[in-house]
């Protein structure tokens, strides 16, 4: 490296042929100090770590993996869908995934799960549960991220998991040909409330509208391809009346 020229908060690097390759994680973005993050009441930290509030990008000096973690939640919509709010990963403070595999879309299968946890009717409670699920999947299951494409709370909001474009870990043997939403709660003996049911149906409709789901997609419960009670007896029975339920067979084998 020949020299570094400082212009305001931007550092321009003049490189020699011997140092042309710099890992993306170490490229400096944003301000040259952490005052912007501090003004939000946050701290700059590696975004693979747990965050009590929300993550914000471009608020910290250093590599792009150093981001601002606030103490409180700031709700932000991904704005991918016109009729349902998808609360972004940054909003709920998602940790950076260990790896990301791109999902070839549109896919033909959509799976419904339940988290088999406590239910939630407020964004604060839902986010607390979603954070706990991500920690369990990454720390105990040793998966690269939270398993589901999306999670749906009884607050009527959808929470971004791996999203539309990334292979999940939700349905073994089917992950590379499907998307999945997990309803937050235990739905063996009771249904999700009307807000949650409406949200997941609008999410699926949006998937078709933005060409992440095929127009002839088929809807399944987790139990259709695995020996499990998921997504719960009450919810699975209700699903049988949904549009596209078992429209065609799954694009993956049933595992027992």
What would you say this structure looks like, in words?
With 256 residues, the protein is an alpha/beta fold. Helices cover 20% and strands 21% of the residues. The chain contains 5 helices and 11 strands, in the order E-E-H-E-E-E-E-H-E-H-E-E-E-H-E-H. The protein has a 6-stranded mixed β-sheet. It has a 3-stranded antiparallel β-sheet with strand order 3-5-4. Strand 8 and strand 9 (158-160) form a beta hairpin. The longest helix has 18 residues, at 123-140. It is globular and about 55 Å long. Residues 1-31 have low confidence and may be disordered.
In short:
The protein has helices spanning 35-39, 89-92, 123-140, 194-209, 233-239, and strands at residues 3-7, 10-14, 42-46, 55-56, 66-70, 86-87, 107-114, 150-152, 158-160, 178-183, 213-221. With 256 residues, it is α/β, with parallel strands linked by helices.
